[in-house]
Design goal:
Blueprint lengths: L2 E4 L9 H5 L4 E3 L5 E3 L7 E3 L6 H7 L5 E3 L1
Antiparallel strand pairs: 1-4, 1-5, 2-3
């Protein structure tokens, strides 16, 4: 299963990922991105990548990876 990984230390909270892919991303309490359904907000196993690839491709700080 693919995994989406978010490095919150690099996130600037621009909102690009949650606007383009609200299936997986949202704004956290710290106004930085968080992964919906993740226990730590930074790693999530998924069945299909879907719009997460768009988030990876457009993130200005490249803090999102698909493993």
């Amino acid at each position: 299963m693919p995994k989406i990984k978010l490095d919150k230390s690099k996130c600037i909270g621009c909102g690009t990922c949650w606007v383009l892919c609200d299936k997986f991303f949202s704004a956290g309490d710290d106004n930085k991105s968080t992964l919906k359904g993740s226990s730590n907000g930074q790693e999530l196993e998924v069945d299909e990548i879907g719009c997460a690839q768009v988030a990876v491709d457009t993130c200005p700080t490249q803090c999102i990876k698909i493993l």
